[in-house]
Amino acid sequence: MGSGDAPAPAQQASKQYVFLSGAISGVRLMAKEHLGRYRNSWDCLRKIVAQEGLLALTIGLGPTLWRNCVWNGLYYGTMAQLDGAAGAGGGAGGLMAPIDNPFLAAARTVVVGTGVGMMATCFNAPFDVVKSRFQALLPEERAARGYRATLPALAAIARSEGPRALYKGFVPKALRLGLGQTIGLMVFQNSMAVFGGAD
Questions:
Q1: Model-level pTM?
Q2: d(CA 106, CA 156)
Q3: What is the pLDDT of residues 84-105, one digit of tens each?
Q4: DSSP structure string for 114-145
Q5: Which pLDDT score, from 0 to 100, does residue 17 have?
Q6: H or E segment to which residue 175 belongs
Q7: What was the pLDDT predicted at 117?
Q8: Helix 61-83 vs helix 170-194: angle between axes, to the nearest 10 degrees?
Q9: What is the distance between the alpha carbons of residues 28 and 89, in angstroms, rounded to a whole number?
Q10: 13 falls in which pLDDT band (50, 70, 90)?
Q11: How far apart are alpha carbons 53 and 21 in whole angstroms?
Q12: Cα separation of 58 and 84, whole Å?
């Protein structure tokens, strides 16, 4: 295969399975329902495939897509509107005025980005809870609770446990996403400026 060729469908599928298998085995290893069931990640992965089939590695894909699309759309869309297209520190076209001092510009980006990230987490956290429930429960447990699709599962959790259940683990998740993605955004913006990718 040449350097410009697209990967074969089998290669693309294997990359997806590697990502999803890591996600489901990680959730299962941490779930209190499964303590002592698995020795390590490989044992967990092997048992999931043996007992539930290869498609079990895709459990939680729907809620993961909802979670990521909501968060990324809100975070990067809002940051683009605030910061403009010119990179770190506010650029032409953004709602925030440019700052010439690079340290003040970076500090503002950290504060604003963390706040925007925390706001975006308010909207994606329920989907993260649904994803974790899908991945933590065995097929018969998911069926018994009626967890077959993302939005109906979201509604079922809210009805049976209350809206607060959709925000379990919110504070650490919001801080990790808000601050972590802001640092990543700043590294990307500054790398583009250094390597000539920015206008």
A1: 0.76
A2: 42
A3: 654 444 445 678 888 888 899 8
A4: HHHHHHHHHHHHHHHHHHHHHHHS-HHHHHHH
A5: 45
A6: helix 170-194
A7: 93
A8: 50
A9: 41
A10: very low
A11: 12
A12: 37
Element (H, E) at 46: helix 41-52
pLDDT band at 11 (very low <50, low <70, confident <90, very high): very low
Kindly report, residue by residue over 153-165, the tens digit of the pLDDT. 999 999 999 999 9
The first and second tokens of residue 166, run together, are 């959709």
* Long-range pairs, 16-24, Cβ under 8 A, ≥24: 16/58, 17/54, 17/57, 17/58, 20/57, 20/58, 20/59, 20/60, 20/61, 21/45, 21/48, 21/57, 23/60, 23/64, 23/135, 24/48, 24/56, 24/57, 24/59, 24/60, 24/135
- The two tokens of residue 110 are 């950290």
pLDDT attached to residue 199: 54
Residue % of the chain over a pLDDT of 70: 82
Residues with Cβ within 8 Å of 34's Cβ and at least 6 positions away in sequence, in order, are 28, 136
Q: CA dist 165 to 69, 130, 148, 151, 182, Å?
A: 21, 10, 18, 15, 27
The neighbour count for residue 181, using CB atoms within 10 Å, is 21
The answer to whether 99 and 89 have CB atoms below 8 angstroms apart is yes
Structure tokens at 8: 């074969």
